[in-house]
Amino acid sequence: MKAPKPRPKRLQLRKSNIIVGGNIGKNKLTPNEDAVSDYEKCFHALYDSVDYFVVNVSSPNTPGLRALQEKEPLKQLLHHLQTINALKPKAKPILLKIAPDLTQEQLDDIIEIVHETKLAGIVATNTTISREGLNTPAAELEKIGMGGLSGLPVKEKATEVIRYIHRKSGAISRLLL
């Protein structure tokens, strides 16, 4: 059975004091080299119904998606979305959702790209794919599957990422002033 299609018309009927964000991403079956097209379709489909966008390049349930967090593909995607956004009657804030499993070098690239593309911010973080520190036997984890973990298993990692981004982006902001 296919998942029901989103109904943006219901979003348009919401009370005006409720802020709604659109989490946009690529289709599971779309190769990464064609991902920009999926993000663009989502952007256009939701533009009239949401107040801001979250560009999700970190879902562990979409095969290969996290490769879009690498510098060049991410830069291309975000520049494209910001260009489309600027052509709209009113540009909407765009944020970037990242994984907690990134290296400091990758985080440095992301901070640089967020400043360069003038994004409104970063959503830190999505779920983790790491199984480090779990007490569950490996065989049981294999049965369960490799989806993302949230809550306590990601708390420390996510906090480290937030702390690092705060420290580094503050230093970059001071340099740009």
What distance lies between the first and last C-alpha atoms, to the nearest angstrom? 53 Å
CATH class: Alpha Beta
Nearest-angstrom radius of gyration?
17 Å
Q: Can you summarize the main beta sheet?
A: 4 strands, parallel
Helix-strand string:
HEHEHEHEHH
What is the name of the CATH superfamily?
A: Aldolase class I
Helix content: 40-55%
Strand content: 5-15%
Could you name the ranges where pLDDT drops below 50 across 5 or more consecutive residues? 173-177
The main sheet orders its strands as 1-2-3-4
Structure report:
45% of the residues lie in helices and 10% in strands. By secondary structure, it is α/β, with parallel strands linked by helices. The chain has one domain: TIM Barrel, CATH 3.20.20.70. Strand 2, helix 3 and strand 3 (94-98) form a beta-alpha-beta unit. Helix 2 packs parallel to helix 3 (71-87), helix 3 runs parallel beside helix 4 and helix 4 crosses helix 6.
Topology:
Blueprint: H1 8-12, E1 21-24, H2 35-46, E2 52-56, H3 71-87, E3 94-98, H4 104-117, E4 121-124, H5 138-144, H6 152-176
Helix pairs in contact: 2-3, 3-4, 4-6
